[in-house]
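Structural prep section.
Before we set up the soaks we want a predicted structure of the protein with zinc ion in place, mainly to decide which crystallisation condition to try first. Input record follows.
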Amino acid sequence: MPRLSEVIAALDALWPPERAEEWDAVGTVCGDPDAQVSRVLFAVDPVQEIVDEAVRLSADLLVTHHPLYLRGTTTVAASHFKGRVVHDLIKNDIALHVAHTNADTADPGVSDALAGALDLRIVGPLVPDTSDPNGRRGLGRICELDHPLPLRELATYAAKRLPATAQGIRAAGDPDALIRTVAVSGGSGDSLFGAVRAAGVDAFLTADLRHHPASEATQHSPLALLDAAHWATEWPWCEQAAAQLDEISDRHAWDLRVHVSTTATDPWTAHAASTFTVSSSPSSSSGAPN
Ligand SMILES: [Zn+2]
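Run finished without errors. Recording the tokens verbatim:
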């Protein structure tokens, strides 16, 4: 049975912490390096429901994509929800380790898992990491569809292949436009519009798209947008990461039990389709501004 320090060293080789963004907070949050590890759980968010799942599983190590403390803290008192997470982890001998932006840009990384969930053919990174001589690491991925689909069908397909959320998939652009190439980026991707335009793809699949960036991007060119729930675009990484650790465990004869969380931690829980159409409202013909 490996020690936590050995498992962490293997995870750091997959997602080197020095490749994380400067503002990020990756690495081990709690855990005894000498503790033995037999069961590992992967999840997107280090929230209470996930800690409860880790306790139920008798996991020794929880690996999450999102940091628990991104901006630091001066207290881990259990009266605060994050302090409660720390207390429950330590009381149950569960270590917490975070791989965030270092997992985003890895090869394979978060966007490879997203592309894989949709069976897209990966051409290369959207924003290549210039320090990678092989040109495979970087943010986002440019992909091709083996069988081009109209935007509306691609949205329906993505909704089937990504874990279910209240939001589902929103699409922007002509629903009948044929999509042959698509850039994907797990998590919030609206800082990548420049790279997406430069790549000349037909569509961009990401999460957390806001009105102004989305409106400007679709005005600028006929780029189609697909907006999924942030959690749903990153959850496929958990399966990919678990498979990577499984393979390492086999190679070292560690006999680890590696699990992927089945708890949805998308904060949005309900969605209502709109029924009020502005154009059919008599008062709208008066032409009020805005
Ligand atoms: Zn994220």
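Observations: The mean pLDDT is 95.
Flagged for discussion at group meeting.
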